[in-house]
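Hi all, posting the design record for the shared folder.

TITLE: backbone redesign
STEP: 1 of 1
STRUCTURE INPUT:
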């Protein structure tokens, strides 16, 4: 029913589209796909080049109002997760991919924290139903278990909040271990947890997904960009040397408009797409790379 487990590494492609946090707004999500000529209204993959990759940086769910009028919400937030899986299947048939990252709000729901679930979403899936769907090995946790915490496409690195030196220290720079550890816990049912999950697994899972400076929760990049750009550049030097990347793309760190920092090496892509935030305009980022020369061009696409 669902797409295959996503690899940690992909080869470079000419066009990558990066979409920030969705928070239940499936209409604006689909408008991104239509406006950027990725999907036709009859749900066919029409992207050019055909091998275009879309990366959505997590937080597809939890649509509780952050200042917006809640009347916009028609479908429960978890429909976004299911829709993104369908879109990846369509993209694969057409030669591309739609890759969804895990965000802190997906992880909150996996852990039974539903405080950002809207009234509309609760009408369709109450706490008991939601807890069951996200339980290890069940429908929604199984979708999450196919997704990544960190992703690398050619020289570009993607994650929800940020990748810090301490995360790489814990895995000796091996990004596979990050994804595999989280995938293991998401897919291990309660009855076999004690048998299959080690203390090391639990410790790494906490470091990657729960700790305030975890990959899903940290806002260290944005804090440093605003307060100490020299330290930010030192951190980026460290990360880029150890992962062999030239630019990092993150969600979670909410900004008014998609902006680069760190001499163009870090992009903050969460510009409040969802109408849970009271914004009329929303954005996505296109990365165009010459696969022969590796010359790169970035384009911020604004919609309303």
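Okay, here is what came back for every position:
SEQUENCE:
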């Amino acid at each position: 029913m669902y797409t295959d487990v996503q690899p940690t590494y992909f080869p470079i492609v000419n066009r990558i589209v990066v979409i920030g946090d969705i928070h239940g707004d499936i209409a604006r999500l689909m408008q991104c796909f239509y406006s950027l000529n990725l999907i036709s209204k009859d749900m066919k993959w029409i992207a050019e080049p055909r091998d275009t990759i879309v990366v959505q940086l997590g937080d597809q769910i939890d649509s509780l109002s952050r200042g917006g009028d809640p009347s916009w919400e028609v479908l429960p937030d978890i429909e976004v997760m299911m829709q993104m899986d369908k879109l990846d299947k369509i993209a694969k048939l057409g030669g591309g991919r739609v890759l969804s990252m895990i965000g802190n709000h997906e992880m909150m729901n996996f852990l039974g924290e539903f405080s950002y679930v809207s009234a509309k979403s609760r009408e369709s899936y109450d706490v008991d139903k939601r807890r069951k769907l996200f339980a290890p090995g069940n429908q929604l946790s199984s979708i999450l278990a196919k997704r990544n915490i960190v992703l690398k496409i050619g020289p570009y690195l993607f994650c929800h909040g940020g990748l810090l030196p301490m995360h790489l220290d814990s895995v000796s720079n091996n990004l596979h271990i990050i994804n595999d550890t989280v995938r293991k816990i998401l897919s291990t049912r309660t009855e076999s947890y004690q048998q299959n999950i080690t203390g090391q697994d639990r410790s790494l899972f906490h470091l990657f997904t729960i700790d305030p400076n975890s990959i899903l929760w940290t806002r260290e990049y944005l804090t440093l960009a605003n307060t100490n750009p020299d330290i930010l550049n030192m951190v980026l030097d460290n990360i880029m040397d150890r992962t062999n990347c030239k630019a990092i793309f993150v969600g979670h760190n909410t900004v008014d408009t998609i902006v680069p920092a760190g001499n163009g090496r870090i992009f903050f892509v969460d510009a409040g797409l969802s109408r849970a935030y009271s914004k009329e305009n929303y954005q996505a980022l296109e990365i165009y790379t010459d696969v022969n020369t590796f010359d790169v061009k970035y384009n911020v696409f604004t919609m309303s």
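COMMENT: The longest strand covers residues 282-289.
Let me know if anyone wants the other runs.
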